Structure formats: structure tokens, C-alpha cells
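Q: What would this chain look like folded?
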Amino acid sequence: MKGYRQGRLGEEIRKVISGLLLREIQDPRLSGLVSVSAVDVTSDGSFATVYVSVLGEADGEWAAENQQKALEAFKGAKGLIRREIGKQIKLRHVPDLIFKIDNSMEYGRHISRIIEGLGLSSEAENDAMSEIAARLLEAQDILIFPHIVADGDAVGSSVALCRALRLLGKDAYVLVEDAIPSNLLFLDAGHVEGETPLSAPQPDESGRPAPMFVQLDQGEAVIGEPDVCVCIDCADVARFPLREELFFRGKVTMCLDHHKTNKRFADYNHIDAGAAATGEIIYKLLLEMQAPITKEIGEALYAAITTDTGNFQYNNTSAESHLITAALFERGIDRLHVSRMLYQGLRMEKLHLFGEILKTVRMVAGGQAAVAYATLDMLAELGAQIEDTEGWSETLRNIKGVEVGVFAKEVKPGETMISMRSKVWADVSQIAATHEGGGHKHAAGCVIYAPPQEALRLVEADVEAYFLRVGPLHNIFIETT
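A: My prediction, written as C-alpha cells:
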């Protein structure tokens, strides 16, 4: 039996036993928080180890006694369990069952209690997802705020939440203050290609859905005093500067984000720095709300996750990223369509801009970092758009021997957005923090109010200082481990 079949059979057996616990096995020793956490099947299929979890607050002898009683109950019901496994899974040879206590869940709870007692848990500061879901379900008028120069995660997460809220009968819109990248507009069913994407949010005579994206000057007309304003993928109010006043006009404010540098500025904050994308947090929120996750909502969430994980190549990609994606596949998403729209619409203007940016590439910090920039004049000369500069920090980081890639793009005259990416060990969020920026260890950024060449020189000095300070310590660590 190959590994895949073993795992699949183990999961099927676990489901059967879990179902029996709910319906068939009436044993007082199995009352309470008793569950089957996993089932491991041997390679020849002759034995299956059933791991039993017995949760509770009891410690010491009492806990051990409850666990022993649960094992005895399972052993007493072995005949019934094996018959049902054979019947439901249609196995010719049902494996013999071995029951063992799985203490990993209780151990995890114990460690969590210790960490919370020491005040070390960042999750302890989070508002419960259930409470956030309840407040959204109570609300009628909801505005969603992605960050400026929105990327796939911000747009995909916002669209998914907006769609779900509308299906629940809410008046929901995504409020923006700049243009949405053209390769992401397909996520808005109300958008018509070639039309200004931020037109008045009313259904047309054909019944086409109202666009989800609305511009700042339309926000007050759409929803004057929102019941809830929720910002997406924003670590700070500086990430939606022109909409800040309207955000705090909401009767309730929320922040859903995955940046460890988040400043928790809303009434309700749920920050999961372990999530690869805010899209993963939105997925969990929709489950908590028992909201429908349609094919279209699933595709928006997939767009969020695939873009923020670099198509599942970045080191923020987790097992949970793949599990959530697998669940979205079950919703019938068209992964190929999403990928074509995201990655296979290269404009010639972007290709020409690529050549111009290449001319600005320089190596710094002894070749450990690569930097480049783009100006508004470069974009205007080539007919390119600001979105055509996306991905450059990753491109620079991918150069052989480079640990950090830094890209500076001028978004307004005298205003430059810095994007930084690291490959293995460097924490670029520390560099971004010197300019009141933030982000993750391997992906961070900041805004500097200076032309891009000048802004880049400032950041280069910070990068050089970082490598001088941290680089030798890192090299010593590598050599001694």
C-alpha cells in the first residue's frame, strides 16, 4: 500500500469512528470531549493505530483515569467499529485496530496556557473571530478598506468578503482611493472590461451586479455612516491615508491582517502573523459566519493566497495554505482561469519598462543586496502604469548570491514606495521600521517622501548598516551549526 493510499484509508477510518461516536457507541466512558485525532495504517494494511484524544481540565491521576476508561471503551467496541469500517469503506480485509492516547492536543493547550500566563502570546491580544463574525452579521451597511496600491491579497480578500456579505443581504462595498491593477479587475463581476472600474455602484438595466469597488468621492454617497468599516491587509492607518477619516466614521471598526507590525488601531483586531495571506484569515471568518463560499468567492480567496505566496513558492507558504486551497478546489474554482488572468496578461509597455528598470540595477552591501528604481517620468515616456512595476523586489532578490532585494517606485511626485524582500535569513521588517514602515521578516516596505533616487540612497545606507550589524552574527551561526 503506497503512502497516499495509507493516508487516505486512515482518514476514512477516522471519519467512520467519529461518526460512530456521535450516533452508535453509547458508552458513558466516551461522553465529554473524546475524539479520534488520527489513524495510521501500516503499509500492508493489516493494522491501524487509532489515536484517541481526551480533552479536559483534569490533571494528574484523574486525567489518566479518564484516558484509561476511554481506551477500554474503544477496545470493548472494537468488533462494532471493525464491522462498520468494512461496511462503509467496503474493505475486503479490515485492519486490526490498536487504540492509543494522543496527548498532543492537551499538551498544546497546556503550553498555550503557560505562554498566555507569561504574557507572551500575540494571539491573546486578538479579538475572537466569533465576535467579529457576530458584529458583521448584525450590521447592514459595511465598507471594506484594502490598502493603497492594492495587491492580489488585499483585492482578493476584499472581494471575497464583499461578495459573501452581499449574499447575506448586506450593503457592502470596497472603498479605494487609487486604481485597482488591471489584472485583478476580473474578480469584480460588476466591472466591464474597458469601462472605468470605479463608476457609480448601481446595477444596470441588464441586471449586471453592482460593482464592488467604489472611489473615495463616492463612498459617502454609497454609505454615509457605515455600521462597520473593516480594513484588509493594513498594518497601519497610513496604508489608507485619504480614507482614514471615513474609516473612523464607522460605528464599529475592524482590522483583519497578517503583518506582525500591525498597530491594532481598530475597535476589533484579528492579526495572524502566521497566515501566509490575509485571504486565509478571510476564509476562516467566512466559515465562522457560516457564509456561502461560492466558486467566485473561492477564486477571489485563491487569488489572494497565490499572489501573497508567490504562487506557493515563498517561505511563508504553510501546510494550512495548501489545505485551504484544497478546500477552495472543492468549491469548484477554476484555478487555470485565475492564473491566466493574474500572470499571463503581460503588456508590451511593462516589457519595455522592464528594460528601463534593468538599467538602474545596482549591487550594494558587498553584493548581498540588489537595488533598482522606477520614476513617474519613466512610466509616462513608455505609457506604462504603476502596476507594471510590481514584482521587482522579488526579481532582485532572486539574483544569485543576493539576500535582499530593494525596489523604489515613485507613486506621486516626491513620494516613493519602497518594497523589500529577503531570501533566507534577513529580517527586512527591521529595515523598513527605520522609516516607520513594516511588514514581515521576508517581505516589508515603507514610504519615503523624496524622489526615488534619493529615497533609495537612504534605504541603501540602512541596508548596509543592517548587514554590518547582523551579517557577521548570522555567518557565525551558520558556521557553528
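Residues 105-122, 191-206, 476-481 have pLDDT under 50 and may be disordered.
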